[in-house]
Amino acid sequence: MINLPDAVSYLVPIIPTAGKTIQTIGIMCANPSDDPGCQATLIIAPLALLEQWKQEIAVATEEGTFKVLIYHGPTRPKNKKDVQKYDVVITTYHVSCFAYPEA
Questions:
Q1: Contacts of 6 (CB under 8 A, 6+ apart)
Q2: What residue numbers bound the domain in which 82 lies?
Q3: Could you read off the pLDDT of 14-61 as tens digits, one per residue?
Q4: Residue 70 domain-assigned?
Q5: What is the pTM of this model?
Q6: Which phi and psi angles does 84 have, rounded to 5°?
Q7: CB-CB contact of 2 with 77 (8 Å)
Q8: How far is CA 25 from CA 78, 94, 99, in A?
Q9: CA atoms within 13 Å, Cβ hemisphere of 14
Q10: How many domains does the chain have?
């Protein structure tokens, strides 16, 4: 198991009805991490919205702006270096609690 907060620079809890997707993507574009070992933004969303978030990021940004990982399911990366290859990591609250149980 990896420690997700060690692999990402920002934690972005998402309330499904808030309607702040575009604003959040804009903030991610405007505030890239300066830490080369911790550059990803972590988005916590309901399972039903993981793919929607990935699509919204693709539509709202130029191609290649962000490498996006949906961190869910049995094939999700198991080590920190694999997660650090991405700019945005999207997962569920349940998976984040499982990956970081002492929080």
A1: 38, 80
A2: 20-31+39-99
A3: 555 556 788 888 888 888 888 877 788 999 999 999 999 999 999 889
A4: yes
A5: 0.77
A6: -70, -5
A7: yes
A8: 26, 23, 24
A9: 26
A10: 1
